[in-house]
């Protein structure tokens, strides 16, 4: 029986041909495209440095989880090992859980939860249970991740219904657009591989790595904006773009116009 760390012991294999560019790296482009995670993490911290001064723990934890996801994803695509697959999926699950624990709006807490500390414990228990289940039934992990992603999308729609700020709607529209493009790349790589091979382009999964990071930048900006808006409305958060609104490479961030003491 092969070790869970041995090459190509994973349950999945992506469209890109294996060992085409290196004898040590199974999927070359799917591995190096993970560099986008290492770019995004410091970028979020740098763009949102005023927010980082207020609430350093959530945003620094998010950046750290991004780095972990990048490392485990690169390890997975490099080896296509079963251990790599588990670590990749579990790091995404823990990253999403961390976002829930820190940023889930208080007014959506279930009735039996009294404060954020209790909510964090609940999220920790559910995440630990899902982690254990993924060793028993690995296929369940993908369903858990999809459930969380769609729940987050549902919450975003709920928030947007109550918000009439056109800049927020514009940012959310861009996030959904890049999310759809990312999912399209992921599905295309998985289900249209023979068609991709005929076209001679088997790199849709590496594009998924890049575009999901673009999506995450919009998503993180939106989460940070709503966090400041609800937790400290007098701070007057505002959505801005670096280096400028009309720049071809306009990166979103949250400016805090009147910084207040955070409690
Ligand atoms: Zn991947």
Automatic annotation (TrEMBL):
| Keywords for the protein's UniProt record, in alphabetical order | Calcium, Hydrolase, Lipid metabolism, Membrane, Metal-binding, Sphingolipid metabolism, Transmembrane, Transmembrane helix, Zinc
Question: What membrane topology does the UniProt entry give?
Answer: Multi-pass membrane protein
Q: What is its EC number?
A: 3.5.1.-
Name the InterPro entries for this protein. ACER
- Residues noted as binding Ca(2+) in the record, renumbered to the chain: 13-14, 16, 18, 27
Entry's Gene Ontology molecular function annotations: metal ion binding; N-acylsphingosine amidohydrolase activity
Catalytic class of the enzyme: hydrolase
Has keyword Hydrolase?
yes
Taken from the UniProt entry, a GO cellular component term is: endoplasmic reticulum
Localization of this protein:
Membrane
Question: What does this protein's UniProt record list under function?
Answer: Hydrolyzes the sphingolipid ceramide into sphingosine and free fatty acid.
What name goes with this protein?
Alkaline ceramidase
